[in-house]
Amino acid sequence: MKPEGFYEKTFEVDSLDYEKFGEVAMEAMTRAVEEVVKECKEKSPESSTTSRTFMKHFFSSFGPLIWAFEKKGEDDPDAHYTTLTELALRNAGYSNLSSLVNKCTSPLSKDIEKYIDEVDPDDSDSEVEEG
Predict the structure, then answer these.
(1) What is the DSSP letter of 83?
(2) Which of 47, 88, 106, 125 could form a disulfide with 29 if both were Cys (CB 3.0 to 4.6 A apart)?
(3) pTM score
């Protein structure tokens, strides 16, 4: 189930141009960030990718992760390809925006690591049976 309000669009990518599904997915995600960046620039009076208005619009479309999947694999989580939004931005040629997104989302990553440590202080992936 996708979070409400996040960007969702279908991009047709010719899979014959790529060897692996991951490459097709990355191309689709790159096209998505290019489109959203363009839309956010149009909504921002400064047309700058570092303005407060731009960032507000951008983060209302994307979070720290972006994912893609084949049309027939939407309901199969194993068929999804996920990457950091900052990597899709870098792939699209927005290196400064990519760095800014990294700085904005780094605290979130640290919070996630903290919560994981609280749940599993031994950093063990094994499950404990209750009974």
Answers:
(1) E
(2) 88
(3) 0.72
